[in-house]
Amino acid sequence: xHDHVIAIDKEIKSLLSxxxxxxxxxxxxxxxxxxxxxxxxxxxxxxxLIEDIQDTENPKTRLTIILDTPGGDVITVEKLxxxxxxxxxxxxxxxxxxxxxxxxxxxxxxxxxFMEYSSSLGPIDPQVFSQKQNRWLPALGYIDQMNxxxxxxxxxxxxxxxxxxxxxxxxxxxxECEQHMQLTVQLVKDWLVRYKxxxxxxxxxxxxxxxxxxxxxxxxxxxxxLNDYKLWCTHGRFIDIIKLRQILRLQVEDYSxxxxxxxxxxxxxxxxxxxxxxxxxxxxxxxxxx
Length: 290
Known about the structure:
Blueprint: H1 2-27, E1 30-35, H2 42-52, E2 62-68, H3 74-87, E3 90-94, E4 98-99, H4 102-107, E5 112-115, E6 120-121, E7 127-130, E8 135-138, H5 139-155, H6 160-167, H7 171-196, H8 212-226, H9 229-232, H10 241-246, E9 253-254, H11 261-278, E10 283-285
Parallel strand pairs: 1-2, 2-3, 3-5, 4-6, 5-9
Antiparallel strand pairs: 1-10, 7-8
Helix pairs in contact: 1-11, 2-3, 5-7, 7-8
C-alpha cells in the first residue's frame, strides 16, 4: 500500500511539472506557484527557488507568480518583491482564488494582475504577530480598538469592562501596528507608481498626458481605500475584480477568456488536490521544484 501511494504521488508530481511547464510556454515566462502564508523566514526559500530557475543561456525577463495566500508579514513581502526585481524586468501575478492582506500588497508590486470573477484580493490591513497573545492580529483592527476606547473615555462613556480591556492593551505592540500600517501604505503607493502605472501615459477620456502628480494621487487613493477599515468593514473582506475596477479604479486583467485560462484552472485543480491529499500548509512549485 505504501509503495502504491508513493507511485501515485510520483505520477501527480510529474503531471504537475508538465502542466506548469505548459503554463510557462503559454505565458512566455518563468512561473512560480506560491500557495502559503507569507511568514518572516520565507525569503531564504523564496530566494533559492528564484535563483534555481535562472537560465544563464536563455534568461527570461518576465516572472509570473500564481499566488494563493491568506497574507502574513508585509516586511517579508518587501523582501520578496526586491528578489523578484533583482532578476526580472516584468513581474505579473495571477490570483486564481485569493491573495489577502499582505498577499494583496505583494500583487501590487507587480506590473499586471490577472484574476477572474471568483478571484479576490483583500484590504491591506497588515497582520502583526503579537508575542503577548502568541498569534497574528490585524494592525488596523487593533488600532481601531484603541481609538474607540480613547474616544469613549473622552466622552465619559467608557464602561468598567472596556476600561479593564484598555488596561490590557500592549502599547509597544500598538506602535508596531502603526509602523506596519505606514510601511504598507507607502509600499503600495511606491510600487503602483513605479510598476503598475509605468505604461499609463494618457487619459482614456481625452487623451491628455498623465502627469507624475496624477499617478501619485491615484496610487495614494488606491492605497488609502484598501486600508480603509470602515469601507470594507472587516479584515477578511473579499474584494472581487468588479470592486477593484469600480471602487478602486485599479486595472485588473480578466484571464477567464484568455488562451491560458482553461489550462490554468486544470493546473490549479490538480495542485489543490495534491496539497489537500498531503495536508500541506505551504506549497511551492517551479519547473525544477515541487
